[in-house]
UniProtKB/TrEMBL annotation:
Keyword Nucleotide-binding belongs to the record: no
Gene expressing this chain: rplU
A Pfam family this chain is assigned to: Ribosomal_L21p
Protein name: Large ribosomal subunit protein bL21
Record key words, sorted: Ribonucleoprotein, Ribosomal protein, RNA-binding, rRNA-binding
Lineage, top ranks: Bacteria, Pseudomonadati, Pseudomonadota, Alphaproteobacteria, Rhodobacterales
GO cellular component: cytoplasm; ribonucleoprotein complex; ribosome
Quaternary structure and interacting proteins, as annotated: Part of the 50S ribosomal subunit. Contacts protein L20.
InterPro entries (UniProt xref): bL21-like (IPR028909), bL21-like_sf (IPR036164), DNA_repair_Rad51/TF_NusA_a-hlx (IPR010995), Ribosomal_bL21 (IPR001787)
Protein species of origin: Ruegeria marisrubri
Length: 207
């Protein structure tokens, strides 16, 4: 019996006793791991997943953590006095031995599911604490605005720019502007509210 499993973005056809080199797993030598992404089970009655077979798994024992063959990356830019660079890379791999192929009951086996270890850069990003949220600009505590925002440009001296700044301060209706106290007006930093605006807002709010 054989199985086709997927790990590290690659597919492998395996059977019990096979030794594989797979992308590095977060497991120590001697530890048993389980691959749950099984695409196909072969044998007398082959089963093909869509894309994976539910309940199927491949179990393996970690032999050791190794590195792959060195890959040379050579870059040369043509033209006179062009630059060139040569560097080598050895991919981190895990050597495993297939021990068993399960056709069902993978979730009840109790074996650790094989997962890849995150690259150093991604691990650092995950460990980095999130930036604190920016403090919101201080605004006056405006009363609850009307259900529909009013056209504040109807007030003499309030243009589109001033209306936008009032909206940023939470004032979007005549009633909200008319209800402002002297302390609330002084607390608004985005725009200087004029007393005549408040008086006109009172009249417009009354209809």
């Amino acid at each position: 019996m054989f199985a086709v499993l997927k790990t590290g973005g690659k597919q492998y056809k395996v059977q019990a006793g096979d030794v594989l080199r797979v992308e590095k797993l977060a497991a120590d030598a001697g530890e048993k791991v389980q691959f749950n992404d099984v695409l196909m089970l072969g044998g007398d009655a082959p089963v093909v997943g869509a894309p994976f077979i539910e309940g199927a798994a491949v179990q393996a024992e970690v032999i050791e953590q190794i590195k792959g063959d060195k890959v040379i990356n050579f870059v040369k830019r043509r033209r006179k006095h062009s630059s060139k660079r040569t560097k080598g890379h050895r991919q981190k791999l895990t050597l495993v031995r297939i021990t068993d192929i399960l056709t069902s009951g993978a979730d009840k086996s109790g074996v650790k599911v094989a997962t890849g270890s995150a690259p150093a850069g991604e691990a650092a990003k995950a460990a980095k604490p999130a930036k604190p949220a920016k403090k919101a600009a201080s605004k006056a505590e405006a009363p609850a605005a009307a259900a529909a925002a009013d056209d504040l440009t109807k007030i003499t001296g309030v243009g589109p720019a001033a209306a936008k700044k009032l909206a940023e301060a939470g004032i979007e209706s005549f009633a909200a502007l008319a209800a402002l106290s002297d302390e609330q007006i002084a607390a608004i930093e985005t725009i200087k509210v004029k007393p005549e605006w408040v008086e006109q807002a009172k009249e417009l709010a009354q209809g």
